[in-house]
Amino acid sequence: MGKGGSAGDVATHENMAAWLLGVNDLQILPFKLPALGPQDVRVKIKAVGICGSDVHYLKTMSCGDYHVKEPMVIGHECAGIIEEVGNEVTSLVPGDRVALEPGIGCWSCDRCKEGSYNLCPDMRFFATPPIHGSLANQIVHPASLCFKLPDNVSLEEGAMCEPLSVGVYGCRRANVSVETTVLIIGAGPIGLVALLSARAFGAPRIIVADVDDHRLSVAKDLGADGVVKVSSTKEFVATEVEEIKKEMGKDIDVTLDCAGFEKTVTTAFGATRNGGKVCLIGMGHCNMTVPLTPAASREVDVLGVFRYKNTWPQCIEFISSGKIDVKPLITHRFGFSQEDIVKAFETSAGGGDAIKVMFNL
If I label 191, which of 52, 223, 285, 359 is the partner at 20 to 30 A Cα–Cα? Predict the structure, then answer.
């Protein structure tokens, strides 16, 4: 978990967690809680969603540049109930329902000092090796990263603030507003939260492109103004770009690439208008060959996104106010048993009609 922890007998609070021990090997085992610091809280975790990165770690013991080298507790999309607070905590009390932001910056480097704590080189992030995650009965976390939920926001919706934050932050980076048309490439979980976010920010027309008919139908149900089925190969990019532009019916101001593959980035560059913005949210490939010079000659701005910063209050407000409804994204629910964690990850990894798989502890 964010504050650390270890396997073994629990001295003070009985606590169990889902440990990643090896490829396709998840086990529920004891997890010892660290001491509660003066500005920390102890949280009884009630809802945890499965992210694509969790599946990557389970299947390959790695995700991007991060590699699991020793047993690690998994999970980072979470919400729960405050059980205990440190002696300097005044913002929360036991019984408060909270959504947890999973990344702890160092708060002393230049990036943290300038407010870009998501770029902190010493970030401690749930379930990013070697930091333990939050799929556990209880965890200890800084109070400043626990956000109280209004009565009309459920704990499951609180856990959804983590993936929703990616969409919200991407829209912020690209300055999505009532004056920007938006193309979203990729209708997986992140593409769908980007769709919900763009709509909440007021985008007047949103088109979604994907290779999968079911995902496109979900995007349409969630409010996409139009959808375009595309192929997975580059040979049809030019034709598909024209089809996307026709579906939009006007210039595309912002493209949010939520897939991150060579083909999708190439499509984004081709579809976005002169002087528009391409925001790279998905991270499917590390190295790719894309037509960067033609995009630069048209002054298409390319923006990177890494996680998020300062998004939880806005996510909670969007959900509480009804501007965003994340409930349709939660397609499968499981309990917290050895059998359940195996089935839950199989369901998430299997794709199909699964969007967000949620644990209820």
Answer: 359
Residue 163 belongs to what H/E stretch? helix 161-173
Dist CA 298 CA 25 (whole Å): 49
**Cα–Cα distance measured from residue 213 to residue 228, given in angstroms and rounded to the nearest whole number:** 9
Q: How many helical (H) and strand (E) elements, i.e. helices and strands, does the chain have?
A: 11, 21
- The residues, ordered by sequence, that sit 6+ positions from 249 with a Cβ below 8 Å of its Cβ are 205
Q: Which of 47, 159, 173 is nearest to 101 (CA)?
A: 159
Query: pLDDT tens for residues 222-264?
Result: 999 999 999 998 999 999 999 999 999 999 999 999 999 999 9
Neighbours of 266 (CB within 10 A): 22
For residue 348, the SS3 value is helix
Give exposure, 319-329, as e/b (b: 16+ Cβ within 10 Å).
beeeebebeeb
Backbone phi and psi for residue 290, each to the nearest 5 degrees, phi listed first:
-135, 155
- Residue 217's Cα: distance from chain center in Å? 21
Q: Are 282 and 186 in contact (CB under 8 A)?
A: yes
CA distance 246 to 225: 13
Please give the Cα distance from 75 to 73 (Å, whole number).
Answer: 7
Stated pTM of the model: 0.94
Three-state DSSP class for residue 164: helix
